[in-house]
Amino acid sequence: MSIFTRIIEGQIPCHRLLENDLVIAFLDVNPLCPGHALVVPKEAKVHLHELSEASAAALGAALPRVAAAILAETGTTAYNVLQNNGALAHQAVMHVHFHIIPKYADGRGLGIGWNAAPIDHAAGAALAGKVAARLRG
Q1: Which of 83, 101, 100 lies closest to 45, judged by CA?
Q2: Of residues 15, 49, 90, 97, which has the active-site annotation?
């Protein structure tokens, strides 16, 4: 049972921002900055692709609402939405969750390193074809 399941079940207190039958949002207890929040499906799955369509849709509806409220109350105008899947991708709690992290003018918030490189167009075309075929079913 993850810490988020324990929060959802009321075993651990939190600063709730939003809650409905499928989603809960609350302030992070170890925030990067004021307003750093988590939006969590009540469905206990480790990876985003494992969620039911209902839970995914509920997250999609909750994220912009929570982000807008955080911006309004913190006075910030920028933010990051972060979601990690699996330990190799830096997921620390093995229950799907999204971070909403306001970015302040003084630099508080999420810092990101981005090691991009130009695409190999032949390999990209091959991969895109395979993924598109899988999505078509």
Answers
A1: 83
A2: 97
83 assigned to some structural domain: yes
CATH of the domain at 91: 3.30.428.10
Q: List, for residues 60-90, the tens digit of each pLDDT value.
A: 999 999 999 999 999 999 999 999 999 999 9
Of residues 100, 31, 41, 97, the one with CA closest to residue 65: 100
* Structural domain contains residue 133: no
Give the count of beta carbons closer than 10 Å to the beta carbon of residue 19. Answer: 15
The separation between the first and the last C-alpha atoms of the chain, rounded to the nearest angstrom, is: 34
Say whether 97 is catalytic. yes
Q: What is the tens place of the pLDDT at every residue in 97-107?
A: 999 999 999 99
Q: Within 10 Å of residue 44's Cβ, how many Cβ atoms?
A: 16
- The answer to whether residue 72 is domain-embedded is yes
As a whole number of angstroms, the distance between CA 3 and CA 40 comes to 11
**Overall domain count for the chain:** 1
